[in-house]
Amino acid sequence: MDISSEMVHSLLPLFLSTVLGASMTTIGVIEGLAEATVAVTKVFSGAISDFLRRRKAVVVTGYALSALTKPLFALAASVSWVLAARLLDRFGKGIREAPRDALIADVTPDDLRGAAYGLRQALDSVGAFVGPIFAFALMAWFAGDLRLVFWVAVIPAILAVVILVRFVPEPRHPAASTEREPFSWRLLLRLPHAYWIVVGLGILFTLARYSEAFLLLRAHDVGLAVGAVPLVMIAMNLAYAVLAYPAGAAADRLGPRRLLLAGIAALILADLMLALASGPIVVFLAALLWGAHLAATQGIFAKMIAHAAPAELRGTAFGGFNLLTGLALLAASALAGWLWSTWGAAAAFLAGAGFAAMAAVALVRYGKG
Hints:
Number of helices: 16
Keywords: Membrane, Transmembrane, Transmembrane helix
Shape: globular
Protein name: MFS transporter
Structural class: mainly alpha
Number of strands: 0
Organism: Tepidiphilus baoligensis
Helix content: over 70%
Number of domains: 1
CATH class: Mainly Alpha
Pfam families: MFS_1
CATH superfamily: MFS general substrate transporter like domains
Radius of gyration: 19 Å
C-alpha cells in the first residue's frame, strides 16, 4: 500500500499545481485536511478495535477503502475532485493505523517495542521509497503522463489487500478487562497523566514539521524537473528506512529523549537548508536529514504511547494521540502554505525551524521534570 500511495503522493503536488492550477495555499490546506482526516478517524478506529478485540477486521477495512479510492486520482478533473479522493484515501489510512499500532504493542514485549516500531517504520519506508522509484521510472516511460502513473498505482494497492486478507491471521485478542465499553470521550480522560505529557510533546513536534509535499514543491521551485521530483521522496525514505530500526533499538537502550533531541536537530538543519536552497542538491541533502528526523522520532513516539497507556485502552490511546497531532499537522501545513504564498519558501521553512527549537526546549524541560 505504501508503494501505491507514494506513487501518487510523490506526484500529486505537481499534478495539483501544474495540471489543475492550484495555489500553494490550496495545496497546503489539502495536505493538512488529508492528515487531519487520518487523525480524526484513528481515534474512533482504535477505540472500535479495543471494543471488538478484533484488530485485523478493522485493519482490512481501512486498507480496502484506500485501495478503492486510488482510481479517483487518475480520473480527477478538478481540485475538489482531488480533495475528495485524498480525504477518502486518508480515511482508509486512519481506519487501519491505530489498530495496527495497538496490535504491535499487544504482541511485543515492552523492552523490545522501540525495535518493533522501528522495524515497522523501516518496512513502511521501504515501500515509501520504492513507490517514488516506480513513479520516476513510469514518468520517463509514459513521457510525463501523470494520470497513467496514477492508474498503475492501483495495482499494488489491490495486491496489498489480497495479501492481508489471505495471509495475515486474526491474532488472539489482547489482555483486557471482561467489560467491553463502547467509545466515548470519557475513555480519553481515563488515560494517565504520563500519556498526556507524551501527547503534548507530540503536538509540538508536529507543529515543527509540515507535509512532505513542501519538500517536493521546494525541489521543483529550485529547478528540479517535474519527472525527477519523485527522487526527493526516494532520498528521504531511503534515509528513513535505513535509520528507523537502529533508532528504535537505540531508544530501548538509551531512552527516547536523546533520540528525539537528535531528530529535532536533524529537522532544524533540514529546514535551514531548505530555506536557503538555491539548487536541487541542497534539497536532496535536506531530504536525507528529513528522513533521519522521521526515523529518530516517529517510532519513538509510538513506543512512548504504548508504554504510557493501559493494554485495554491502547487502540484508544493511539487514536487520541494521532487525532491531536493530526490537527496540529493541519495547522502547520496550512500555515506553511500561507507563509510560502505571502513571503516565499524561505519564510515557511524558517518558521518550521523555529517551532522545532521550541520543541527541543520543551523536551529538555520534560526530561528534567
